[in-house]
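Action item from last meeting closed. Structure (162 res):
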């Protein structure tokens, strides 16, 4: 006698086959509509062109700062020049200031209450910052040693005294 298998059994076989088949990613080209992308890029370019033409028509070029003066071409590292003109400090200089503030706070706590556990937390944070500074600093002369309760004052005077 022939016994008919239930319908859901075929479904479970099909599901098992689906799970066993490898997943093959489709190429990027099949997932993007190039015509839509081209139309969007053309619209963006048209808006940029319109904005520039309006700027020129309204006399914007005559109002630019430094018109008629020679251009100053930065020398050396371009990124440093851009950061300097934008008044942005390099991250390692910011770290130096944070390290100094932490060291000063730790020295104040040591004066007030030498047994305060906050001192150890400040020193641990300062040492993490020192490790990051040593990683970021552009010169070995800017590298710093880790600080402890014993060498905190000495290191501070060494680094920040005039």
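Sequence:
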């Amino acid at each position: 006698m022939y016994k008919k298998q239930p319908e859901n059994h075929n479904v479970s076989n099909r599901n098992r086959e689906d799970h066993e088949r490898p997943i093959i990613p489709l190429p990027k080209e099949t997932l993007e509509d190039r015509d839509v992308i081209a139309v969007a890029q053309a619209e963006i370019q048209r808006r940029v062109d319109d904005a520039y033409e309006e700027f020129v028509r309204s006399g914007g070029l005559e109002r630019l700062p430094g018109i008629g003066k020679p251009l100053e071409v930065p020398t050396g590292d371009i990124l440093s020049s851009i950061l300097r003109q934008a008044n942005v400090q390099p991250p390692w200089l910011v770290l130096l200031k944070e390290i100094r503030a932490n060291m000063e706070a730790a020295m104040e706590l040591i004066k007030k209450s030498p047994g305060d556990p906050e001192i150890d937390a400040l020193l641990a944070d300062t040492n993490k910052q020192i490790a990051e500074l040593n990683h970021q600093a552009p010169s070995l002369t800017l590298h710093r040693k880790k600080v402890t309760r014993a060498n905190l004052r000495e290191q501070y005077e060494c680094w920040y005294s005039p």
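Note appended to the action item: The helical segments are 7-20, 28-31, 34-57, 78-85, 91-112, 117-136, 152-160.
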